[in-house]
Structures are given as structure tokens and as C-alpha cells.
Design a protein that fits this description.
Immunoglobulin-like; alpha+beta; C8orf32 fold; 2 domains; single chain
Length: about 290
């Protein structure tokens, strides 16, 4: 599938902002199943400085500085992306095999994946997380079955409620409240997988906004989305979306990945102002290209 992705973020301030400095993760990256053909970033007011770089995980990151006074800051990233879908998983390989190979193999990809075995600032393990994960990962169960059940259980056990959490909500709080948004469910899935000795990372991206006729509209299609990814030695990274109870397919566009949300927020920055309030507006459109 080929998509045009348009992501616009606007901040409206009650009083003048003298300077804005921003960092954005809104530029789709290339992956084994994805190629970004083009990206254009529009910032209003026009920035006095703009540059792009690659971060530690290879994500595309842009930095900008707006030095003119303003009460509205608008940032739009428009990209054209080709997506081919996810990777196949061995149907009968026990999940412990992946854990064992992560411990003993010395391949470059495995050594790199080990960095995602550890706790991170927003995903801290606990006995409650390990207990929740263990229900889907009994000894000897095929990994593909365990992943499918964990995804389904999170989808069934937790209510999608945008007002119930914030970017500061912990995995333990999500477990207790039994509600959240895609970011929370991705964090929970990552925490569960790490608690079992599997390497897992947080993925930020988008969903197809308008599905083909007869296919269901997915939750999170009008905003940036998030899901989890687990490393399977010999196969690669396999992505699951507990918000929608599915393995990630060619209806998803990846922008960035990291240990958790804190590594890859779509947009963050610093402003200089006396404004006490601001209004945030976000719109996302992921439209298939003809042909």
C-alpha cells in the first residue's frame, strides 16, 4: 500500500510567545516493510533554524527555532510512504526459544535488541505486570499464540478512555485503572513482554484513516497511534496493536521507535511566554494513493 500522511499540530496561546524551540518525530522512517518516498515539513511562523538528524535508534528527528513573536504555532509534516506489511512468525516455536536465543546468541541484531530488555522511565516492571503477562505465556506455548492472546486480553480488559490517563501515567496505574489510550496499552504490552525476558519496544506511527469498503475503521485513526513490537530471533521485529486487537499490517505507517513514549513524542519543545494557557489541536489524515 502507498499512503499520503498529513499530520498537523497547532498550539494556540492566550498571550504572545516570544520564542519557540521544537523537536519533532513526525517523519516516517524506512524499515524492512516500509519506504518513505518523500517528506515536507511546514512550520508557521517560518523558523529561523531547521535541521534534521538521526537519533540513537535511527529515527528521523527534526529541530526548529521560531524567533518571531506569535500566538499560534502550526507544524505540518506531509509524507508519501510505501508499506508492505509485517513479518511472518514460526507457527509452533515456543516463546521460551526467543528468550533463550536473546540470552546466548551473539548476532549483531540480537545484541542490539538486548537494550530493549530493560525497564525504561515510563515502563517499569512489577510483580503485577509479570502476573498479568504470565497468563498468556504458559510454558511451551507457541510465541505467535501467546502474542495473539496477550493482545486480545489487553483489548478486552481495558477500556479506551482518552480522559483517564496522561503522558505521565505509569504501567502500574494503567493496570489498576483498567483504562487508557493507545500509548498506555502499548506501554503495558511492552512491560509484559520485558517482564518475561523478551525484548520489546514502543512504536509510534499512524493508521489508515479511511479503510477500504467492508473493512472496519480502527481506533486511533484520526491522531498519531502507538503499538508494541517484540524481537523474535531469526524472524525480526513483530508488531502487535492491543488497542485494536490485531497484528500490525500494511494499514500502519511507522514514524519512530524507542524504549517508551518519552523517546519518541510526536512534538515537544520549549517556549518563552507569560501565557498561562494554550489550546492544542491535532489532525491526522492517512489516505491511500490511487493505484
Amino acid at each position: 500500500m502507498s499512503y499520503r500522511v498529513v499530520h498537523t499540530t497547532e498550539y494556540v496561546y492566550e498571550s504572545e510567545v516570544s520564542e519557540s524551540y521544537g523537536e519533532l518525530y513526525m517523519l516516517p522512517r524506512d524499515t524492512p516493510g516500509q519506504v518513505c518516498r518523500s517528506t515536507r515539513v511546514r512550520i508557521d511562523p517560518a523558523p529561523h533554524g531547521y535541521r534534521e538528524r538521526r537519533d540513537f535508534y535511527g529515527n528521523r528527528v527534526a529541530h526548529f527555532a521560531v524567533l518571531d513573536a506569535h500566538t499560534l504555532l502550526s507544524v505540518t509534516a506531509e509524507s508519501v510512504v510505501d508499506v508492505t506489511g509485517g513479518l511472518p512468525l514460526p507457527a509452533d516455536e515456543p516463546w521460551e526459544t526467543a528468550r533463550h536465543r536473546l540470552r546466548v546468541d551473539l548476532g549483531d541484531d540480537i545484541v542490539e535488541a538486548r537494550g530493549f530488555l530493560l525497564d525504561s522511565p515510563k515502563v517499569v516492571g512489577s510483580p503485577a505486570v509479570r502476573h498479568y503477562a504470565g497468563e498468556s505465556f504458559p510454558p511451551g506455548r507457541p510465541l505467535v499464540e501467546a502474542l495473539a492472546e496477550l493482545t486480545s486480553r489487553i483489548h478486552a480488559d481495558f477500556a479506551f478512555d482518552p480522559g483517564s490517563t496522561s503522558v505521565r501515567t505509569t504501567v502500574s496505574e494503567v493496570l489498576e485503572r483498567r483504562s487508557g489510550v493507545c500509548q498506555d496499552f502499548a506501554h503495558l504490552a511492552v512491560g509484559c513482554l520485558r517482564s518475561l525476558g523478551l525484548a520489546a519496544r514502543y512504536v509510534s506511527g499512524y493508521l489508515e484513516t479511511r479503510p477500504p469498503p467492508g473493512r472496519p475503521r480502527l481506533v486511533g485513526a484520526d491522531v498519531s497511534h502507538a503499538w508494541a513490537s517484540v524481537f523474535v530471533p531469526g524472524s525480526g521485529w513483530v508488531d502487535i496493536d492491543p488497542t485494536n486487537n490485531r497484528f500490525v499490517s500494511d494499514r500502519y505507517v511507522t514514524t519512530a521507535w524507542g524504549r517508551d513514549y518519552g523517546d519518541v513524542p510526536p512534538l515537544k519543545g520549549i517556549i518563552y511566554t507569560e501565557s498561562k494557557k494554550n489550546e492544542l489541536r491535532v489532525s491526522v489524515d492517512v489516505a491511500p494513493l490511487d493505484g
